[in-house]
């Protein structure tokens, strides 16, 4: 993936030609899909935004009930892949780029959609503590990625820790609901 | 606090004169302590770094035992104040400034010292999952501050959620130790 290459070489130092080589395709076919490096990042971010929007639609279509929060959070967290983790690491490492791209693109959508999911799951009359715990559960992979910086922890280890964090928070949420 | 003023007006838009007014002191006495805005931020960050170094020294001076991790994490998390939360929010909102200041100053120290505390508590032969969970427990307030962005949650609510997160992670850690 292009994001993995950005993470190794740095975003600024990576050219579209290198990305094409890395993917084993011609520069022409890469250009056919993406006009620029920014375009690659934006497209990745907007896929993730779509996934969060799909999660919201899915949650809304379920029978409301005590276990809906748990099922929805686990649906999101269990779908975490190494590729998504790389995307999150890229976002964390390039805050200035993210701010630039988020103007008028789909980049802001992921966090917004996840916030909507959290509000829906926490309920209209949820206190702030409950809402924050649900948000933190949905953002488990982001938290684990950030805590893992500099540890040499494997991607698999980070994903596993994120799942543990989500489970711990769901346990905490059961105790206050 | 100067960081609160930076958060309201934005760092770039806040002058040393305004900070002095806000603190109710003369610009001359502010200059006596701080040569620049950067100096104010660096001094805040280095105090927090000192606190993390103190935590490590404290943990090392304790009798090792099963409850040392819990006591150390709670010592750190319970010391979270609204002022510290503002500092964290400021850091999150100004990543580029933080990168600039961290070159050759004490800014990198907080995270480094907390990492050392986490390694010490997790133990030399800790698996990555255990180490990451301890790190996440120590970084609870950072996680809560980040999850609270845009919720209108009060500072007290954020601090309370951070404590719940730390407790949930300590519970998870008990189950794998």
Topology summary:
Two copies of one chain form a homodimer.
Chain A: H1 2-9, H2 16-23, H3 27-33, H4 37-61, H5 68-78, H6 82-93, H7 95-102, H8 109-122, H9 128-138, H10 140-147, H11 155-176
What tags apply to this protein structure?
homodimer; 177 residues; mainly alpha
Structure summarized in a few sentences:
With 177 residues, the first copy, chain A, is mainly alpha-helical. The first copy, chain A, is built from 11 helices and no strands. Chain A has one domain.
Polypeptide structure, described:
- Two copies of one chain form a homodimer.
- The first copy, chain A, contains eleven helices and no strands.
- Chain A is mostly helical.
- Helices cover about 75% and strands about 0% of the residues of chain A.
- Chain A has one domain (about 40-175).
- Chains A and B meet through helix 9, helix 10 and helix 11 of A and helix 9, helix 10 and helix 11 of B.
Quickly count the domains of chain A: 1
Q: What percent strand of chain A?
A: under 5%
Secondary structure tally: strands of chain A: 0
Tally of individual helices of chain A: 11
**What ranges of chain A have pLDDT less than 50 throughout 5 or more consecutive residues?**
none
Which pair of protein chains has the largest interface, and what are the residue counts?
Answer: A-B, 33 and 33 residues
> What sort of overall outline of chain A do the alpha carbons produce when their principal axes are compared?
elongated
C-alpha Rg of chain A (nearest Å): 18 Å
Along the chain, the helix and strand elements of chain A come as HHHHHHHHHHH
* Multimer state: homodimer
Structural class of chain A: mainly alpha
């Amino acid at each position: 993936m292009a994001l993995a290459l950005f993470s190794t070489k740095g975003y600024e130092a990576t050219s579209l030609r290198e990305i094409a080589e890395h993917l084993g395709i011609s520069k022409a076919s890469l250009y056919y899909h993406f006009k620029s490096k920014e375009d690659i990042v934006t497209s990745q971010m907007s896929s993730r935004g779509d996934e969060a929007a799909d999660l919201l639609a899915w949650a809304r279509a379920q029978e409301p009930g005590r276990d809906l929060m748990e099922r929805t959070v686990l649906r999101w967290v269990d779908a975490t892949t190494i590729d998504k983790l790389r995307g999150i690491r890229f976002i964390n490492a390039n805050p200035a780029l993210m701010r630039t791209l988020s103007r008028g693109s789909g980049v802001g959508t992921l966090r917004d959609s996840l916030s909507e999911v959290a509000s829906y799951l926490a309920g209209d009359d949820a206190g702030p503590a409950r809402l924050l715990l649900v948000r933190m559960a949905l953002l488990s992979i982001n938290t684990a990625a950030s805590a893992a910086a500099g540890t040499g922890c494997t991607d698999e280890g980070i994903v596993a820790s994120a799942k543990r964090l989500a489970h711990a928070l769901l346990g905490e949420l059961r105790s206050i609901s």
